[in-house]
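Input/output pair, single chain:
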Amino acid sequence: MADLLHKPLLDIEEQSRTSKKPPRVASLDVFRGLCVLLMMLVDYGGAIIPIIAHSPWNGLHLADSVMPFFLFIAGVSPALVYRKVPNRIEATWKAVLRAIKLFLLGVVIQGGYFHGINSLTYGVDMKRIRWLGILQKISVAYLVAALCEIWLSCRARREVSFLKRYCWHWCVAFSLSAIYLGLLYGLYVPDWQFEMSNAISSVFPKNHSYVYTVKCSLRGDLGPACNSAGMIDRYVLGIDHLYKKPVYRNLKECNMSTYGQVPDSSASWCHAPFDPEGVLSFLTAAVTFIIGLQYGHLLAHLQDHKGRMENWTLFSFSLLELGDPVNKSLYTFSYTLITSASAGITYSALYLLVDVCGYRCLTFGLEWMGKHSLSIFVLVNSNSVVITVQGFYWAAPENNMIHWIVSRFLRR
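Output:
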């Protein structure tokens, strides 16, 4: 094991001289595959095993680690892709176009165009389309990290220390964190109202609507009703464009039924939409991406396994700090650091297993999933496979295999 850790790797520049395309780092694909596997596990198994589903508000469950793990491993790639940038303008345009494509794909996948397993129809009302989602958050975070790598990396002199070479990246990360904390704790949240109707809620009868009032008049609150993140989304995006089924409805205050309905007697904010991928959370998501970028720098610059493992481990444990509550829906600063550290430790373990010890045969399935992660993500989040199976029914649309599984195992 010691010999393996001290074994030098082929330098990136030497790779470019000896082969046109350097070999892939297998552990990167394995980690992406692990993220996809976890996503499918919590999406399809969360209803059966609640402990792995998203935490209703504060706290950290298995499902809450999937998003930051995706951001972290996606952040590693720009450090390898943009290590040498002969034309910064051209590289910038490519990064912008890639981010736009990913953002638009996310709008189609998670904007409400696909109606899930309860309907054989598709299409979305543009008045109620959800603009933000997972791919949108990844696209914006990717663009921030790519611009940092293209324009703010010091590549002029090799004798410049590692920290000084990327000090501006950390300046961006600290600035984004400061803006996030300032807005989260500093903005005043007044009382607010919203209207719910049968068009977006199954609680009310046809042609009926009701106006709810949420009492706030405070600042710095991190609860589901009066946080500034929700207020920003309501002002910037509009309440009709937010996620209609927020996870905080699983709190005991909301008393949600097995079929996902919130009784009218519950707290007013239980009926309100809230987007866990909201505008404010994009700031700390970009910080997670930049942290992943620094792991990529260590992968690109250090030439031996031991040096990489030592630096990754030290870096990961240095991030394990607590301050504000750990909250995925708000993407709090503590949540950012803890999940980034967890991602770094997990990746280090996979790197040791796959790239150092060479046990790729044990993870070939995850590696394959990682190479096709975007395609699998689209299939899972659009429910394309489920909808295809559901489309084959007997006599009536509800007599299909998916409906049978849901009624027998998920609604018992």
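Residues 333-356 form the longest helix (24 residues). The first strand starts at residue 188 and ends at 189.
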